[in-house]
Amino acid sequence: MQNKNLNLLKSKPNFFGALARQHNKRKVAFTLAEGATHVARQHNKRRVAFTLAEVLITLGIIGVVSAITMPSLITNYKNKANIAMIRKVYFDLGQVADLALTTEGKKSILSTTLATDPANAFPKYFKVAHTCSGQSAPCFASSYTTLNGGTTSVSAGDNSFMTAAGYSVWPSKQEGRIDVVVDINGSKKPNVAGRDLFGLQIKTNGDITGYGSSGSNECKSSTLNGCNCFDAIYSNNWEYPDNMK
Q1: Digits of tens for pLDDT over the chain (245 positions)?
Q2: Is 35 contained in some domain?
Q3: Does residue 85 belong to any structural domain of this protein?
Q4: Which burial class, exposed, middle or buried, applies to 83 when counting CB atoms under 10 A from its CB (0-12, 13-18, 19+)?
Q5: Is residue 26 included in any domain, yes or no?
Q6: Which domain holds residue 203?
Q7: Which helix (H) or strand (E) holds 70?
Q8: Is 29 within a domain?
Q9: What's the structural domain count of the chain?
Q10: Alpha-carbon distance 228 to 218, whole Å?
């Protein structure tokens, strides 16, 4: 029997050599845990990577693109934040007017205490953070830039105050209306009429409008100092008109 097996092996001398060569062609494998087999990489495999020059060039391109686009993105973000706050002021004042007409049982806003006693009546409808009796700060800045390149100022009266929401209000009764000067972020920058300083009016029926015309061109008027820009934004579907951006 042993001679028979030996003859069989001699008749196939390349049997084990073929098995060895086939084994060498396989990737080396080992088992770390049951069902988890990991294949090791051969050391003679070529590995691809970025060179330092390629990385620096890529970073340079990213920097150039960022320098071009970031100012525009920041401006758009600030504009949207300003629009969101002036919309809040608009709706808040509308609610105040409606509440005053309802609770006091009046048909005209001029017959309510908002008109007859604005210094005491307005704060009752807001959560007041600061009062600014006889001084501008912190409710308003001492000076504002206008959209046409000029300057203007706000001489806030004793009835001006800053709300907990962050915007400042200065109401005053005028002929046939109540004027409300608003700074949407108090005395903080940019301090530009038409950007964070606006003039609004409460009409006799409680409607809220801006100063002057709704045309965006008049928004830069030197006589109105940009305070009437609210109407330009409102009539443009709550967006800055192109000539205001």
Answers
A1: 545 554 544 555 555 455 455 555 554 444 545 554 444 555 556 666 778 888 889 999 998 888 888 888 888 898 899 999 999 999 999 999 999 999 999 999 999 999 999 989 999 999 999 998 777 788 999 889 888 788 888 877 678 999 999 999 999 998 899 999 999 999 999 999 888 999 999 999 999 998 765 444 556 654 556 667 888 888 889 998 877 76
A2: no
A3: yes
A4: middle
A5: no
A6: 80-244
A7: helix 52-103
A8: no
A9: 1
A10: 8
